[in-house]
Design brief:
27% of the residues lie in helices and 14% in strands. The protein has 5 helices and 8 strands. Helix 2 packs antiparallel against helix 3.
């Protein structure tokens, strides 16, 4: 979601989080993480701050050989999106809960580090160490050659930003996207954090996104059309006079990192209904 009439630049580690109409035009540079970049339409968009620039990225951090890896991990493969929805049985749901619980704990720890002067590289180190200490694999690592263990998206970076040496600054926002692979299942979660005190417009944007998330969760249930999620998000955006970024989609998760169904976050007619065991 973004402020009306404003488009933001973005980094993308992989094409699978992009909606199909955009995936065909994305050029992913191995290890760089860049995808679509949209120039801001207004000269004063940056409020006197220079646009973000990629900085030096440190080498990929090692993972002990004893920790089980997802299939793409060793070769840096970029798997096709799995068209089979992830519907889990009781044992699968138990493992999903464990993976998601760990992801949430790692995210909370990462968020506690956010303050002016801290680099996203430092956040990546903390996420990496906490993940492997729990016997899990940091899912973003080497997914399509993504070089880090977490995605950190600062300000105009929409998602899948690569941690680097830029210190966070007062007034920034940073989305931290944590995914862990534990006992054969991916747990995926993210949250946007304020760096210091946010401006009123920044707070409005972040709070509206959080409201959209809550409203979308409320509509979920067996037999509910997947499109209801987009309708809920779109209604919140319209209420706050914001627009939804349509370049990215939600997705299923479980034994694979990105799977059907594809979830649009705006009004849409996508087919499919939710069912018990969906994730």
């Amino acid at each position: 979601m973004q402020q009306a009439s404003k488009l933001q630049g973005l980094h993308s580690s992989a094409q699978h989080a992009l909606r199909p109409s955009v995936r065909s035009c994305v050029r992913v540079a191995a290890g760089k993480g860049f995808g679509v970049v949209k120039a801001p339409p207004k000269k004063d968009y940056w409020n006197g701050r220079a646009p973000l620039q990629p900085m030096q990225i440190s080498p990929m951090r090692p993972v002990p050989a004893s920790i089980p890896r997802p299939p793409y991990a060793d070769r840096g493969l970029l798997p096709d999106l799995d068209n089979r929805p992830q519907v889990h049985n009781a044992e699968g749901l138990k493992k999903m809960r464990a993976a998601c619980k760990l992801a949430a704990e790692v995210l909370a720890q990462a968020g506690s580090l956010v303050k002016p002067g801290v680099t996203t590289e430092e956040i990546d180190i903390a996420v990496h160490e906490m993940t492997i200490a729990a016997g899990a694999y940091p899912s973003p690592r080497n997914y399509g050659k993504f070089p880090k263990s977490v995605c950190t998206s600062v300000n105009e970076v929409m998602c899948h930003g690569i941690p680097d040496g830029r210190p966070l600054r007062e007034g920034d926002i940073v989305n931290i996207d944590v995914t862990v692979y534990l006992n054969g299942y991916h747990g995926d979660t993210s949250r946007t954090f304020y760096v210091g005190t946010p401006s009123p417009s920044t707070r409005k944007l972040v709070e509206a996104n959080e409201e959209a998330l809550r409203e979308a969760i409320q509509v979920c249930g067996p037999g509910v059309p997947c499109s209801a999620i987009g309708a809920a998000c779109g209604a919140v955006a319209a209420k706050h006079k914001l627009t939804v970024v349509r370049d990215f989609i939600g997705h299923g998760v479980g034994t694979v990192f990105h799977a059907a169904p594809q979830i649009f976050h705006h009004n849409n007619n996508q087919p499919g209904k939710m069912q018990v065991g969906f994730k």
